[in-house]
Amino acid sequence: MDARDAGSLDGVEASDPIMWFQRSLARAAQTESFDPTRAALATVSAQGRPSVRYVLVKQVDARGFAFFTNYGSRKARELSGNPAAALAFHWTSLGEQVRVEGTVENLPGHESDTYFANRPRVSQLGAWASQQSAPVENRAALDALMQAVEQRYPEPTPVPRPDHWGGLLLVPSSIEFWRDRAGRLHDRWLFTRDNAAWSVCRLQP
Q1: What gap in Å lies between CA 35 and CA 197, rounded to an integer?
Q2: How confident is the model over 58-67, as a mean pLDDT?
Q3: 94 lies in which domain range?
Q4: pLDDT tens-digit readout, 129-188
Q5: Burial status of residue 6 (CB atoms within 10 A of its CB: 0-12, 13-18, 19 or more)
Q6: Each residue of 176-195: b (16+ CB within 10 Å) or e?
Q7: Is the dihedral of CA 165, 173, 94, 88 positive or negative?
Q8: Around 39, how many Cα atoms within 13 Å sit in the side-chain half-sphere?
Q9: Does the pLDDT value for residue 32 go beyond 90?
Q10: Which of 59, 75, 170, 197 could make an S-S bridge to 65, C-beta 3.0–4.6 Å?
């Protein structure tokens, strides 16, 4: 029986929130109608104003949760000034939610290179064409930028990763798992980390 169904946190899975997350993500990949790696990412500006948007969290391991972006984008600029951030996953088909809080740092360049090399070519070109979050006059102007990049890197020329594009890693200090239950008496477990060790407690709904 799943540890959450049993109402306890016994077993290997319950001691490792990253493994728990990976198992939930694998289940969601079988049941969700949208990309299960989609998560809401919350950041805070230098003025203390929060903002949120969806990102695709493409790598999850013992270090944390990785996503990729233009380093000049609003989220990247805000994280440069204040690295505190939060992620929220919600999988409707499972009736589950995961909340992650922590600090963000850049991924090593070679990991960004590897991920970029495996992106569709049109996405690689788009990373060069778009100055993410910057104003643009109209769609025609954006299309012209894309055409210029296509001319710079005609097929079969490989498209290198731009210096302004790469990975960010959210290193979690807390991970909360939530499961829908009848009468809104939901199951909630909060994992908090002290150095390398995780502790867990059940929260009231």
Answers
A1: 31
A2: 97
A3: 3-119+162-203
A4: 999 999 999 999 999 999 999 999 999 999 999 999 999 999 999 999 999 999 999 999
A5: exposed
A6: bbbbeeeeeebbbbbbbeee
A7: negative
A8: 28
A9: yes
A10: 170
Residues that are catalytic: 184
Residue 108: give its domain's CATH number: 2.30.110.10
CA dist., res. 180 & res. 97, Å (int): 8
129 in any annotated domain: no
147 in a structural domain: no
Is the Cα torsion angle 151, 152, 156, 161 positive or negative in sign? negative
Domain assignment present for 128: no
Say how many CA atoms lie within 13 Å of 12 toward its Cβ.
Answer: 2
Phi, psi dihedrals of residue 59, rounded to the nearest 5°: -140, 130
First to last CA, the chain: 22
Residue 84, in any domain of the structure? yes
- Domain count of the fold of the chain: 1
